[in-house]
Amino acid sequence: MENTFRIPQLLLRYALGITFLTPVADRLGILGAPGTGNIEWGNWNNFIDYTSTLMPIFERSMVNIMGGIATVSELLIGICLIIGFKTKYVAIGASLITLMFIIFMTLSVGIQKPINYGVFTASAAGFLLSFIPKYHWSIDGFLNNKSDSGKN
Fold first, then answer.
1. What predicted TM-score, i.e. pTM, was given to this entire model?
2. Under DSSP, is residue 131 helix (H, G, I), strand (E, B) or coil?
3. Whole-number Å distance between alpha carbons of 37 and 41
4. Cα–Cα distance between 134 and 88 in angstroms, integer?
5. Dihedrals φ, ψ of 69, to 5°?
């Protein structure tokens, strides 16, 4: 049964990891300039402007800090999911951070935005991924195999 989940768990890790890395690249201007293609923000200031609408009770300096924390968190989550490092815990973190996004977005701009951006799906995907027993083709799998071979 365990072999059945090898490819789906890998695809889920990659899809969720990319889901976290793409907005980071967008807000850092890596994907293109504001207003071009499917660029949501295109730079840090546009991202913070949008984040300010989600957190209207905070001063801009605090929003900048929180945006920075979210960005670093998303970057680390995305990378760790793709390489499969501490996957169970990172998947739980992914689920929790997206749940927080759902709450802030729903309270400030309504339920439709988190639905449109797939935030509910990302949160559920992280939660599901945290329940997979073994992460094949990952650093976790490599480390587990290495420690298992040392016991023989």
1. 0.91
2. coil
3. 11
4. 9
5. -65, -45
The token duo for 42 is: 């295109």
The residue type at 149? S
pLDDT tens, 59-102?
999 999 999 999 999 999 999 999 999 999 999 999 999 999 99
Q: Assess contact for 55 and 63: CB atoms under 8 A.
A: yes
Distance (Å, whole) CA 54 – CA 132? 33
Q: Please check whether residue 54 is in contact with residue 108, taking contact to mean a CB–CB distance below 8 angstroms.
A: yes
Indicate the domain borders of the chain. 2-151
Are the C-beta atoms of residues 82 and 137 closer than 8 Å to each other? no
Question: Amino acid identity of 31?
Answer: L
How far are the Cα atoms of 40, 102, 117, 130 from residue 92, in angstroms, in the given order? 26, 15, 19, 6
